[in-house]
């Protein structure tokens, strides 16, 4: 263990088992998270919807041969992969439309709920 990873190294007391070696874990997890963000950026997943759709097409083309290679290496036999007709840009656009629709009616709904709330409070006071 490193300098901060032995019992009683910092503070003179014995550290709980779950608190040992926090520094290296943090560095490893941070490195993995940074690598994941870099790969996502490098593959175009953090770009426009068009770049994301292209990255998805690349993944759909590359994954089945890679999975087949690994399963033949291990000796497993998997059923054929299903084909999906999925458009990320259409899904994204539908999500944006739903959010914008909700935001556009929010002031009206807030006003209605405020009126109902005041009416309820007045009825309680009577």
UniProtKB/TrEMBL annotation:
Record's keyword terms, sorted: Membrane, Mitochondrion, Mitochondrion inner membrane, Transmembrane, Transmembrane helix
Subcellular location: Mitochondrion inner membrane
Species in which this protein is naturally found: Falco tinnunculus
Membrane topology value: Single-pass membrane protein
Similarity-based family: Belongs to the MICOS complex subunit Mic13 family.
GO terms classed as biological process: cristae formation
Gene Ontology cellular component terms for the protein in this record: MICOS complex; mitochondrial crista junction
Its biological purpose: Component of the MICOS complex, a large protein complex of the mitochondrial inner membrane that plays crucial roles in the maintenance of crista junctions, inner membrane architecture, and formation of contact sites to the outer membrane.
Annotated stretches, region: Disordered: 1-20
A Pfam family assignment: QIL1
InterPro entries according to UniProt: Mic13
Keyword Methyltransferase found: no
Protein name: MICOS complex subunit MIC13
Subunit structure: Component of the mitochondrial contact site and cristae organizing system (MICOS) complex.
Ranges annotated as biased composition (Gly residues): 1-15
């Amino acid at each position: 263990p490193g300098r901060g990873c032995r019992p009683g190294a910092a503070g003179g007391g014995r550290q709980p088992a779950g608190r040992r070696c926090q520094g290296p874990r943090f560095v490893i997890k941070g490195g993995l998270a940074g690598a994941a963000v870099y790969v996502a950026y490098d593959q175009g997943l953090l770009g426009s919807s068009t770049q994301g759709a292209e990255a998805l097409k690349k993944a759909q083309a590359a994954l089945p041969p890679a999975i087949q290679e690994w399963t033949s290496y291990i000796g497993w036999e998997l059923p054929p992969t299903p084909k999906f007709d999925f458009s990320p840009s259409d899904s994204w656009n539908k999500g944006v439309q739903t959010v914008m629709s909700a935001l556009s009616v929010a002031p009206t709904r807030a006003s209605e709920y405020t009126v109902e709330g005041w009416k309820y409070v007045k009825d309680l006071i009577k």
